[in-house]
Amino acid sequence: MQLGRWSDWLSWLLWPALYGLGLFGSYLALGSSRPLLAFNGVYLGLFVVIALLERLMPFEPQWLQDDGDTAANLAHTVFTKGLVQIGAALAASLGMGTALVVQPAVAPASGLWPAAWPLFAQVVLGLVIAELGLYLAHRIAHEWPLFWRFHALHHSVRRLWVVNTGRFHIVDTCFKAVLGQIPLYFLGAPLAVFLWISAVTAVTGLLTHCNIVLRTGPLDWVFSTPGLHRWHHSKRIEEGNRNYGENLVLWDLLFGTYYNPSRRPPADIGIHGRIAVGFFAQLAQPFRRNGVRDIMGQDTQ
Ligand SMILES: [Zn+2]
Ligand SMILES: [Zn+2]
Protein backbone atom coordinates (compact mmCIF):
# COMPACT_ATOMS: atom_id res chain seq x y z
CA MET A 1 0.00 0.00 0.00
CA GLN A 2 1.37 3.43 -0.97
CA LEU A 3 1.25 5.62 2.06
CA GLY A 4 0.95 9.35 1.83
CA ARG A 5 2.68 11.65 4.29
CA TRP A 6 -0.35 11.74 6.59
CA SER A 7 -0.75 7.97 6.66
CA ASP A 8 2.96 7.64 7.32
CA TRP A 9 2.65 9.64 10.52
CA LEU A 10 -0.49 7.75 11.43
CA SER A 11 1.29 4.43 11.10
CA TRP A 12 3.83 5.58 13.71
CA LEU A 13 1.18 6.94 16.05
CA LEU A 14 -1.36 4.15 15.87
CA TRP A 15 0.28 1.42 17.99
CA PRO A 16 1.00 3.70 20.99
CA ALA A 17 -2.42 5.37 20.56
CA LEU A 18 -4.38 2.10 20.44
CA TYR A 19 -2.30 0.55 23.24
CA GLY A 20 -2.82 3.67 25.36
CA LEU A 21 -6.52 3.73 24.56
CA GLY A 22 -6.85 0.09 25.61
CA LEU A 23 -4.98 0.66 28.87
CA PHE A 24 -6.90 3.84 29.68
CA GLY A 25 -10.17 2.03 29.04
CA SER A 26 -8.96 -0.80 31.29
CA TYR A 27 -8.14 1.73 34.00
CA LEU A 28 -11.68 3.13 33.87
CA ALA A 29 -13.22 -0.35 33.70
CA LEU A 30 -11.23 -1.85 36.58
CA GLY A 31 -12.12 1.12 38.77
CA SER A 32 -15.84 0.89 38.01
CA SER A 33 -18.54 -0.90 39.98
CA ARG A 34 -18.91 -3.60 37.27
CA PRO A 35 -15.29 -4.17 36.21
CA LEU A 36 -15.84 -7.39 34.22
CA LEU A 37 -18.75 -6.00 32.21
CA ALA A 38 -17.00 -2.68 31.66
CA PHE A 39 -13.79 -4.37 30.54
CA ASN A 40 -15.69 -6.49 28.01
CA GLY A 41 -17.12 -3.23 26.65
CA VAL A 42 -13.63 -1.74 26.32
CA TYR A 43 -12.38 -4.92 24.62
CA LEU A 44 -15.26 -4.91 22.16
CA GLY A 45 -14.78 -1.19 21.43
CA LEU A 46 -11.07 -1.65 20.70
CA PHE A 47 -11.91 -4.71 18.59
CA VAL A 48 -14.27 -2.63 16.42
CA VAL A 49 -11.79 0.25 16.03
CA ILE A 50 -9.04 -2.16 14.95
CA ALA A 51 -11.41 -3.98 12.54
CA LEU A 52 -12.28 -0.63 10.90
CA LEU A 53 -8.63 0.41 10.61
CA GLU A 54 -7.82 -2.94 8.99
CA ARG A 55 -10.20 -1.99 6.18
CA LEU A 56 -8.75 1.52 5.86
CA MET A 57 -5.02 0.76 5.95
CA PRO A 58 -4.31 -2.98 5.71
CA PHE A 59 -0.75 -4.24 6.04
CA GLU A 60 -1.49 -7.17 3.70
CA PRO A 61 -4.50 -6.48 1.44
CA GLN A 62 -4.77 -10.21 0.65
CA TRP A 63 -5.43 -10.93 4.34
CA LEU A 64 -8.72 -9.05 3.99
CA GLN A 65 -10.18 -11.92 2.00
CA ASP A 66 -12.57 -14.22 3.80
CA ASP A 67 -11.15 -17.63 4.75
CA GLY A 68 -14.44 -19.13 5.93
CA ASP A 69 -13.12 -19.48 9.50
CA THR A 70 -14.55 -16.33 11.09
CA ALA A 71 -17.40 -18.10 12.93
CA ALA A 72 -15.05 -20.75 14.38
CA ASN A 73 -12.56 -18.07 15.44
CA LEU A 74 -15.24 -16.07 17.23
CA ALA A 75 -16.59 -19.27 18.83
CA HIS A 76 -13.14 -20.10 20.27
CA THR A 77 -12.84 -16.52 21.55
CA VAL A 78 -16.22 -16.48 23.26
CA PHE A 79 -15.89 -20.04 24.60
CA THR A 80 -12.46 -19.48 26.14
CA LYS A 81 -13.14 -16.01 27.49
CA GLY A 82 -16.57 -17.09 28.71
CA LEU A 83 -15.19 -20.01 30.72
CA VAL A 84 -12.43 -17.92 32.26
CA GLN A 85 -14.81 -15.10 33.16
CA ILE A 86 -17.50 -17.40 34.55
CA GLY A 87 -14.82 -18.97 36.75
CA ALA A 88 -13.69 -15.55 37.93
CA ALA A 89 -17.28 -14.40 38.53
CA LEU A 90 -18.06 -17.56 40.53
CA ALA A 91 -15.02 -17.00 42.70
CA ALA A 92 -16.01 -13.36 43.18
CA SER A 93 -19.59 -14.31 44.05
CA LEU A 94 -18.21 -16.41 46.89
CA GLY A 95 -16.74 -13.21 48.25
CA MET A 96 -13.27 -13.93 47.03
CA GLY A 97 -11.22 -13.01 43.98
CA THR A 98 -9.75 -15.81 41.88
CA ALA A 99 -6.30 -15.12 43.20
CA LEU A 100 -7.52 -15.06 46.79
CA VAL A 101 -9.04 -18.51 46.39
CA VAL A 102 -5.87 -20.22 45.28
CA GLN A 103 -3.22 -18.03 46.78
CA PRO A 104 -3.58 -18.91 50.49
CA ALA A 105 -3.46 -22.61 49.64
CA VAL A 106 -0.15 -22.44 47.85
CA ALA A 107 1.55 -19.43 49.38
CA PRO A 108 0.68 -19.13 53.04
CA ALA A 109 1.86 -15.69 54.06
CA SER A 110 4.82 -15.81 51.69
CA GLY A 111 5.34 -12.11 52.29
CA LEU A 112 7.64 -11.95 49.26
CA TRP A 113 5.46 -9.66 47.17
CA PRO A 114 6.37 -5.94 47.44
CA ALA A 115 2.81 -4.89 48.30
CA ALA A 116 3.97 -1.44 49.43
CA TRP A 117 5.15 -0.50 45.92
CA PRO A 118 2.90 1.74 43.79
CA LEU A 119 0.40 -0.38 41.83
CA PHE A 120 2.05 0.59 38.52
CA ALA A 121 5.40 -0.81 39.66
CA GLN A 122 3.71 -3.96 40.99
CA VAL A 123 2.00 -4.51 37.62
CA VAL A 124 5.29 -4.07 35.72
CA LEU A 125 7.00 -6.54 38.06
CA GLY A 126 4.04 -8.93 37.74
CA LEU A 127 4.18 -8.69 33.95
CA VAL A 128 7.89 -9.49 33.83
CA ILE A 129 7.37 -12.54 36.07
CA ALA A 130 4.19 -13.71 34.31
CA GLU A 131 5.93 -13.34 30.96
CA LEU A 132 8.53 -15.94 31.94
CA GLY A 133 5.75 -18.51 32.47
CA LEU A 134 3.97 -17.42 29.28
CA TYR A 135 7.24 -17.61 27.34
CA LEU A 136 7.96 -21.14 28.60
CA ALA A 137 4.40 -22.32 27.93
CA HIS A 138 4.49 -20.89 24.40
CA ARG A 139 7.92 -22.33 23.63
CA ILE A 140 6.90 -25.75 24.95
CA ALA A 141 3.75 -25.53 22.80
CA HIS A 142 6.01 -25.18 19.75
CA GLU A 143 8.77 -27.60 20.65
CA TRP A 144 6.92 -30.49 22.33
CA PRO A 145 4.60 -32.37 19.92
CA LEU A 146 2.07 -33.19 22.65
CA PHE A 147 1.49 -29.47 23.23
CA TRP A 148 1.84 -28.44 19.57
CA ARG A 149 -1.23 -30.51 18.73
CA PHE A 150 -3.26 -27.93 20.72
CA HIS A 151 -1.32 -24.83 19.69
CA ALA A 152 -1.37 -25.71 15.96
CA LEU A 153 -4.95 -24.42 15.78
CA HIS A 154 -3.72 -20.88 16.42
CA HIS A 155 -1.03 -21.15 13.73
CA SER A 156 -3.26 -22.72 11.11
CA VAL A 157 -4.66 -19.33 10.05
CA ARG A 158 -3.79 -18.18 6.53
CA ARG A 159 -4.40 -14.52 7.31
CA LEU A 160 -3.71 -12.34 10.35
CA TRP A 161 -6.45 -10.05 11.52
CA VAL A 162 -8.10 -9.01 14.76
CA VAL A 163 -10.62 -11.87 14.66
CA ASN A 164 -7.83 -14.45 14.96
CA THR A 165 -6.68 -13.05 18.31
CA GLY A 166 -8.79 -15.49 20.33
CA ARG A 167 -8.32 -18.54 18.11
CA PHE A 168 -6.76 -20.80 20.73
CA HIS A 169 -7.70 -24.30 21.80
CA ILE A 170 -9.08 -24.13 25.34
CA VAL A 171 -6.38 -26.59 26.55
CA ASP A 172 -3.67 -24.35 25.07
CA THR A 173 -5.13 -21.31 26.84
CA CYS A 174 -5.39 -23.10 30.21
CA PHE A 175 -1.82 -24.40 29.98
CA LYS A 176 -0.54 -20.89 29.29
CA ALA A 177 -2.64 -19.36 32.07
CA VAL A 178 -1.38 -21.88 34.63
CA LEU A 179 2.31 -21.33 33.84
CA GLY A 180 1.85 -17.58 33.61
CA GLN A 181 0.06 -17.23 36.93
CA ILE A 182 1.55 -19.85 39.26
CA PRO A 183 4.71 -17.88 40.11
CA LEU A 184 2.56 -14.88 41.05
CA TYR A 185 0.39 -17.01 43.33
CA PHE A 186 3.49 -18.28 45.12
CA LEU A 187 4.83 -14.77 45.52
CA GLY A 188 1.50 -13.57 46.92
CA ALA A 189 0.64 -10.97 44.26
CA PRO A 190 -2.69 -9.19 44.94
CA LEU A 191 -5.81 -9.59 42.81
CA ALA A 192 -5.35 -6.13 41.25
CA VAL A 193 -2.06 -7.27 39.70
CA PHE A 194 -3.73 -10.36 38.18
CA LEU A 195 -6.53 -8.24 36.74
CA TRP A 196 -4.13 -5.72 35.25
CA ILE A 197 -1.98 -8.44 33.67
CA SER A 198 -5.14 -9.96 32.13
CA ALA A 199 -6.15 -6.54 30.77
CA VAL A 200 -2.71 -5.75 29.33
CA THR A 201 -2.51 -9.23 27.75
CA ALA A 202 -5.95 -8.83 26.15
CA VAL A 203 -5.09 -5.39 24.69
CA THR A 204 -1.66 -6.52 23.45
CA GLY A 205 -3.18 -9.64 21.87
CA LEU A 206 -5.68 -7.62 19.81
CA LEU A 207 -2.84 -5.49 18.48
CA THR A 208 -0.31 -8.27 17.77
CA HIS A 209 -2.71 -9.95 15.34
CA CYS A 210 -4.05 -6.85 13.61
CA ASN A 211 -3.65 -6.35 9.87
CA ILE A 212 -2.88 -2.61 9.98
CA VAL A 213 0.14 -0.73 8.67
CA LEU A 214 1.91 0.03 11.92
CA ARG A 215 5.44 1.14 12.58
CA THR A 216 6.81 0.41 15.99
CA GLY A 217 10.57 0.99 15.61
CA PRO A 218 12.30 0.97 19.02
CA LEU A 219 9.12 -0.34 20.71
CA ASP A 220 10.02 -3.72 19.13
CA TRP A 221 12.77 -4.00 21.75
CA VAL A 222 10.27 -3.86 24.62
CA PHE A 223 6.82 -4.97 23.52
CA SER A 224 5.44 -7.87 21.54
CA THR A 225 4.40 -5.85 18.49
CA PRO A 226 2.48 -6.86 15.33
CA GLY A 227 5.69 -6.78 13.29
CA LEU A 228 7.37 -9.31 15.58
CA HIS A 229 4.31 -11.53 15.81
CA ARG A 230 3.96 -11.73 12.03
CA TRP A 231 7.32 -13.53 11.97
CA HIS A 232 5.99 -15.88 14.63
CA HIS A 233 3.24 -16.95 12.21
CA SER A 234 5.70 -17.74 9.42
CA LYS A 235 5.49 -21.22 7.85
CA ARG A 236 9.27 -21.55 8.08
CA ILE A 237 10.16 -23.24 11.35
CA GLU A 238 13.34 -21.16 11.81
CA GLU A 239 11.20 -17.98 11.71
CA GLY A 240 8.05 -19.29 13.39
CA ASN A 241 9.86 -20.72 16.43
CA ARG A 242 10.83 -17.21 17.48
CA ASN A 243 9.23 -14.27 19.31
CA TYR A 244 7.33 -16.24 21.94
CA GLY A 245 6.68 -13.26 24.23
CA GLU A 246 3.02 -12.49 24.88
CA ASN A 247 3.41 -8.87 26.05
CA LEU A 248 7.15 -8.26 26.33
CA VAL A 249 10.21 -9.44 24.42
CA LEU A 250 12.50 -9.55 27.46
CA TRP A 251 12.66 -13.35 27.70
CA ASP A 252 13.07 -13.78 23.93
CA LEU A 253 16.07 -11.46 24.13
CA LEU A 254 17.54 -13.31 27.11
CA PHE A 255 16.95 -16.81 25.71
CA GLY A 256 18.02 -15.99 22.14
CA THR A 257 14.67 -16.41 20.37
CA TYR A 258 14.19 -12.74 19.44
CA TYR A 259 13.79 -12.34 15.68
CA ASN A 260 13.32 -9.06 13.87
CA PRO A 261 14.97 -8.85 10.44
CA SER A 262 14.48 -5.65 8.47
CA ARG A 263 12.82 -7.35 5.48
CA ARG A 264 9.07 -7.76 5.13
CA PRO A 265 7.51 -10.78 6.93
CA PRO A 266 5.85 -13.41 4.69
CA ALA A 267 2.23 -12.98 3.61
CA ASP A 268 1.91 -16.73 3.05
CA ILE A 269 1.50 -17.97 6.61
CA GLY A 270 0.11 -21.12 8.25
CA ILE A 271 1.26 -24.67 9.05
CA HIS A 272 2.01 -27.72 6.98
CA GLY A 273 -0.55 -29.90 8.76
CA ARG A 274 -4.32 -29.80 8.24
CA ILE A 275 -6.68 -28.43 10.84
CA ALA A 276 -10.29 -29.61 11.00
CA VAL A 277 -13.03 -27.26 9.83
CA GLY A 278 -15.50 -25.90 12.38
CA PHE A 279 -15.40 -25.13 16.10
CA PHE A 280 -16.37 -28.54 17.53
CA ALA A 281 -14.20 -30.53 15.13
CA GLN A 282 -11.27 -28.26 16.04
CA LEU A 283 -11.86 -28.79 19.76
CA ALA A 284 -11.88 -32.57 19.28
CA GLN A 285 -9.04 -32.90 16.76
CA PRO A 286 -6.07 -32.94 19.21
CA PHE A 287 -7.66 -35.89 21.02
CA ARG A 288 -8.33 -37.96 17.89
CA ARG A 289 -5.65 -40.27 16.53
CA ASN A 290 -6.30 -39.51 12.87
CA GLY A 291 -6.79 -35.84 13.59
CA VAL A 292 -3.47 -35.60 15.37
CA ARG A 293 -1.71 -37.16 12.39
CA ASP A 294 -3.18 -34.38 10.26
CA ILE A 295 -2.05 -31.66 12.67
CA MET A 296 1.52 -32.91 12.80
CA GLY A 297 1.79 -32.87 9.01
CA GLN A 298 5.39 -33.00 7.85
CA ASP A 299 6.63 -30.10 9.90
CA THR A 300 6.03 -30.01 13.64
CA GLN A 301 6.69 -26.33 13.98
ZN1 LIG B 1 2.82 -19.79 18.70
ZN1 LIG C 1 -0.66 -15.38 17.01
Report on this model:
The protein is an all-alpha fold. The chain has one domain. Helices cover 61% and strands 0% of the residues. It is built from 13 helices and no strands. The chain has helices at residues 5-30, 35-56, 70-93, 98-106, 119-143, 145-155, 170-187, 191-208, 226-232, 237-240, 250-255, 279-284, 289-296. The radius of gyration is 19 Å and the shape is globular. The two termini are 31 Å apart. One zinc ion is lined by residues 154, 209, 229, 233.
Keyword list:
mainly alpha; binds zinc ion; 301 residues
**Total DSSP E strands:** 0
The outline comes out as globular
The helix content, as a percent range, equals 55-70%
Summed up, the helix count is 13
| Distance between the ends | 31 Å
Major β-sheet annotation: none
Strand content: under 5%
Query: What Rg is obtained from the alpha carbons, in whole angstroms?
Result: 19 Å
What ligands can be seen in this structure? zinc ion
The arrangement of helices and strands along the chain is HHHHHHHHHHHHH
Structural class: mainly alpha
* Average pLDDT figure: 88
Oligomeric composition of the shown chains? single chain
Number of domains: 1
Unreliable residue stretches: none
